[in-house]
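TASK: fixed-backbone design
INPUT:
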C-alpha cells in the first residue's frame, strides 16, 4: 500500500519510463515523497553511487516488474540493494507492481 508517510524509490526499465513518469507525477500530486532518477539525478552525479545512496535513504522500493525490467541489469542491482536493506533492517522494502505476465512465466535461474 502506498502511503504519504513513506518515501519511495521507483525502479523500472527504460522501456517502462512513461508509466514511471506518470507514477512519479501522481505521487508528487498527492504529497508522497519519491526519488525518480530523471528528476533527482544531478549533473556530475556518479550514476551507480547516486542510485545506491537513494535506495538506502528511501523507505521503500517500488519495482515496476515487466519483461523489460526482468532483463535489466540496472533493475537487478537495485532489487539486490533493496533485499540487502530488508535483511539488515528486518522490514519489507521491496514492493513489486506487475505490469505484464512475464514474471509468472519466468523460470527460476
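OUTPUT:
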Amino acid at each position: 500500500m502506498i502511503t504519504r508517510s513513506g518515501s519511495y524509490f521507483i525502479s523500472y526499465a527504460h522501456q517502462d519510463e512513461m508509466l514511471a513518469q506518470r507514477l512519479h507525477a501522481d505521487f508528487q500530486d498527492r504529497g508522497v515523497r519519491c526519488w525518480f532518477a530523471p528528476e533527482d539525478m544531478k549533473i556530475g552525479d556518479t550514476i551507480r553511487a547516486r542510485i545506491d545512496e537513494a535506495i538506502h535513504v528511501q523507505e521503500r522500493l517500488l519495482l515496476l516488474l515487466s519483461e523489460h525490467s526482468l532483463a535489466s541489469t540496472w533493475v537487478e542491482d537495485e532489487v539486490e540493494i533493496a533485499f540487502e536493506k530488508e535483511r539488515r533492517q528486518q522490514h519489507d522494502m521491496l514492493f513489486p507492481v506487475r505490469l505484464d505476465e512475464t514474471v509468472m512465466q519466468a523460470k527460476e535461474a
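COMMENT: The two ends are 29 Å apart (CA to CA).
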